[in-house]
Amino acid sequence: MNFNFQRIGNVGLRSLTLGTRFLFIFFLAKYLSPSDVGYYGLFTATVGYAMYFVGLDFYAFATREIIKTPKEDRGQLLRGQAALSGLLYLGLLPVALVFLYNTGWPAHLVWWFIPILMLEHFNQEVFRLLVALSEQVIASLILFARQGSWAIGIVILMAVEPASRNLDAVMGFWLLGGAGAAGLGFWKLKKLSMGGWGRAVDWAWVKRGIQVSVWLLIASLALRGIQTVDRYWLEALGGIDQVAAYVLFLGVASTLMVFLDAGVFSFAYPTLIAQYHANEQSAARKTLRAMLVQTVALSAAFAVASLLLLPYLLKWIGKLAYLDAVHLYPWLLLAMVINALGMIPHYALYASRRDNIIIYSHLLAMVAFVAATWALSDAVGAMAVPVGLNIAFFTIFTIKTLGFWWLKNPKQPAPDNITSSLKNG
User: Fold this and answer.
1) Of 34, 13, 86, which is closest to residue 241 (Cα–Cα)?
2) Which residues of 249-266 are buried (b: 16+ CB within 10 A; e: fewer)?
3) What does the alpha-carbon distance between residue 269 and residue 374 come to, in Å, rounded to a whole number?
4) Residue 61 — pLDDT band, cuts 50, 70, 90?
5) Which end of the chain is more exposed for a tag (fewer CB within 10 A), N or C?
6) pLDDT tens profile 110-160
7) pLDDT in tens, 341-363
């Protein structure tokens, strides 16, 4: 009964966030110029990409460690992760500023980048930790504060005050929402009463985590690189207004992943990790089958609903930049459905520690995206980007699915002495 309440509460909060973000991008398109929407899309993609550099994808290692570590020792792990990120910030932020000043962005956007990046990174890591600890409801509340609350605020302000219809107002509200989410995250971390915060950082554990996560980082950079380079490439082929339409339609299509993460993945993957760690193969297969059925059903429902609603929403926006580019949406929707299906074998591989297959699939997908987009650019122009995106996600789906079926007997993690090493640290 408690589980059902948690799932309903989690899905309710995520649905509220999803609905808010779904409508938010349409209000941006309504109230901002297409060029401003295009720069907003470039900004969000660049923040998302930079988070991998300052986080080093260390969570992929730390999450599995935290789940199997006693509560009284978890604080030391998190302190080590925070120390690593602090060092990365010191080294990478100057490089980021130099890069951004040479991208051609409006200068005022650059100064919003660092504070928003830091808040987004912290909130993302807290969100991941809470999901791993099966605290999905509070995690979803933090997600709403981080993504939904400020979006509602800025939309209301833009509706009543035309002078606020600019990117600086949007960034200011984003910063406020991130600060509120961070405060909620700090409060929840304190309530968890995890021990070990006062111990020295276990740099040997951090080093081991880097050795594991660096390869996953390469894979993540390749995958996220596709979803960052695509916007810059589209700007080169079709201009910033084309990027605005792409951002609008991709924002709509991407809400499918938010909904699936809330209703399916966030509950299933901690269970999968525990099942594979306990060598419960039959239970793991049952979990994966349930994930597949739910993913297919929700993807089909989302596709039908979004295709029916989109024409009315575009008519309400009333701008030719979006109406003329509506042909992009079916391609982006298909890409997100393929991406969603690919998450089933992804979580199976991740839970069973077959990280090498994940890495290969993402690297090959990046190669496939670049090759396909490059080859098609002269023939179909800007359409080469969404076609290349589909080819990339299909490559990932195929490799992960084949990898999962070829290796039917998952490699179990070797016993370790994580608890004793923490106590000795």
Assistant:
1) 34
2) bbbbbbbbbbbbbbbbbb
3) 36
4) confident
5) N
6) 889 999 999 999 999 999 899 888 788 889 899 999 999 999 999 999 999
7) 999 888 888 777 777 888 889 99
What are the structure tokens assigned to 403, written together?
């990898």
Give residue 123's pLDDT: 96
Task: Give, rounded to a whole angstrom, the gap between the first and last alpha carbons of the chain.
Answer: 41
Beta strands in 348-419 (DSSP E): none
CA 128, 86, 88, 353 torsion-angle sign = negative
Number of neighbouring beta carbons within 10 Å of residue 8: 11
User: Residue 243 corresponds to which amino acid?
Assistant: V
Q: The tokens of 265 are what?
A: 């993945």
Look up the pTM and report it: 0.77
User: Which pairs from 79-83 meet CB under 8 Å and 24+ separation?
Assistant: 79/196, 79/197, 79/199, 79/201, 80/201, 80/202, 80/203, 80/205, 80/206, 80/209, 81/125, 81/206, 81/209, 83/201, 83/206
